[in-house]
Model the fold of this input.
Amino acid sequence: MNAIENIINRRLFALLRLALWREPQEPTLFEGMDDEAWNAVYKKSVEQGVLAFAFDGVKMLDAELQPSIDVKIQWGYNVENIEKLYKHKVSVATRLAKLYADNGIRTMIMKGLSIARYYPVASHRQFGDIDIFLMGDYERGNKIIAEMGAKIKYSFFVHSEFTASGVNIENHRWFVNPYVNRCATYVQHALEQLVDGARPHPTVEQAYAPSAEFDALFLTRHSSWHYARESIHLRELCDWAVFLHNEYDNMNRTLAERILRESGLERYASILTDICCKYLGLATDKRLALASADSALVERVMNDILSYDEMEQAKRGVLATFYHKITKRWARKWCYDEVVPDSFFGNIFYSAKNYLLHPAAIFKAKS
Done:
């Protein structure tokens, strides 16, 4: 990482700490910045999925440290769009939860729309799909939607998909793919035991949000799966930080620590936590009692995340795209060897088999 990239990252982290915890600002980082310097921070915040959080930090800076009005207009315009999308998705989720409730089905909302509640401004947490679990009524839930004329897609056996008012809904049969390896099997079984701890969702009426213990395991597994295959964004690090900050005193920590350890996710969770404490300002007294990770490995993972490059997938044929994915995966073999509880070659074999059985899946974008 060169000096220019380093200062861009330092400024972005400082803005995120301001936004998340109201930390004292660091004037020396922002003095004398011109539009070019500010646009570099803006671009990085877009790439890392934290545009709106970063702008919250910008607005907390002293007036003389803030960017020009032109930069703020561009930034603020995009934040407004994020807020509008969030409100629309909450409205869609609320109508969907009511529909299911009227049919005697409980809806638990996972991932983005639930993790957003931990942020100072919930509408600033960007996400795409709305992920739901119908507490054992997966098939009946699909039938209700199909009878209303919606097309149900079954491209992935883990969940079905349908569209409601322009929003993609993923109705989960499984929380994770339980057939990949021992870790996945353990996680699926453990989450099935934890789902009964769901609580009323604070934003979506007649819906539920996962328990703290559920999310400690689910967020870690979901993040680790994506990290090894293609890396993650700072957004996922922020998720882990605000989750620990809000739920540390509420969760059964002994249980959460045990399931992370037994699943094999302890090292990955420890690395995430170390990064959150060092770079995002998470209080050290919010750490779970997990085995410490090697500091050099922590830094390698942090640099890997900061260099995340999510290029738009070029239009290729199935075989060319498959080859591209394999070669890209090979470059991330070290993540399997040192960071996550998954087998590199086992993962390659499973992906190849899955793509052969479901060729359309090779073109599906990351969720």
Q: What stands out?
A: The chain is about 55% helix and 10% strand. The domain at 104-210 is CATH 3.30.460 (Beta Polymerase; domain 2). The first strand starts at residue 107 and ends at 110. The first helix runs from residue 3 to 21.
